[in-house]
Amino acid sequence: MPPKKALATAVATAARFGRVRNNLKMGVVGLPNVGKSSLFNLLTSQAAAAENYPFCTIEPNEARCPVPDERFDYLAKLYKPQAQHNAYLSITDIAGLIAGASEGAGLGNAFLSHIQAVDGIYHVVRAFENMDIIHVDDSIDPVRDMMTINSELCKKDLSIVVQGIEDEAKARKKVGAAKRDQLFDDVSGKVTELLKKSTPIRDGKWEAKEVECINEKLKLITTKPMVYLVNMEMNDYAKKGVNNKWLPNIRDWIKGNGGGSVIPMSVDFEQALWDRKEDPKEAEEFLKKMGAQSTLPEIIREGFQQLGLIYYFTAGEKEVKAWTIREGTMAPQAAGVIHGDFEKGFIKAEVVGWEDFRRLGKAGSMADIKAAGKLRMEGKQYIVKDGDVVHFMVNAKKKK
Predict the structure, then answer these.
(1) Is there a binding annotation on residue 35?
(2) Which residues pair with 259 in a beta bridge?
(3) CATH number at residue 193
(4) What is the mean pLDDT of the chain?
(5) Is 364 annotated as a binding residue?
(6) Where is the TGS domain (predicted)?
(7) Binding residue per annotation — 34?
(8) 265 and 319 share a domain?
(9) Under a CB-based contact definition with an 8 Å cutoff, are residues 22 and 309 in contact?
(10) Binding site annotation covers 38?
């Protein structure tokens, strides 16, 4: 049964920027011709356009890809179910950005609105030279390119703050000065100071109430988690980037400008491996020769994690399924992802942690797990953990 549009309730100890939803999206962002669409195609096995000229991608392409997980594979092999459903990561391929986008250059505000619609960002950075592949600035300088995108995103956020302050002032005129929101004044001032310095908002130090204010009233782009994907030439990637002259400077710049995960990768390598997918022996020989493995699984898992998403499993002979929830979701809301009525009629959850299941549930039976005292009965306050194997008990009378 597919999940309804039930929203999980996040109860994480620290407030998070962004929307409280289970179906969050990562957007692939970068300058034109850095490998964004080619990477998107590889991640999602789609055939989105990926031509060698700027703005090939106009409207954002959207797709989803399964989240690689040995735990899911283990359950599927154990139960041999009639149906199996991975967790999925939704990904959007967004058109290339150029300097001046915040003022309408290139695809301008359309591009930036597409970034606003996603919840996290894969920032693809080109770190290779190839005269046959056009660069929008006619030269390769990854740090300059990252500064360009960072500057445009900060400028866009600054315009959002200015508009937010104007809207707040209009609202106050209607209700009177007594309704002044001091928190908003303080937060908007703090945000403005950071953005004028081209400092991403995620790089600031924020209290929970300030995060909530930004989420509710400003919805800024630079609050989104960022995963930097450094696209290198194939041989550089195979040698783990030790000979790439740009990689150290890229890491240093990221560390000083909002932080974020850094994953060296190579679209050329991934494409060469994909081209051999119909011949496993040839693919194996290629990997052995290169001395490297695909980084696509790591990219997918990192994006999923950066969005604050986890999943629990329901497992049996009929179906093995990973159910996506926000980290910090309590048991009734986790049950509601399966069906809204499950949240209303929630009684308790039978839970076994993944490590206990792997160690004790080898025959697919709960008998040994119960005997070892590892099958727990959890109530409404239980926060579901990543990898939990769960069976929900609900009251049918309350399913209305």
Answers:
(1) yes
(2) none
(3) 3.40.50.300
(4) 86
(5) no
(6) 308-394
(7) yes
(8) no
(9) yes
(10) yes
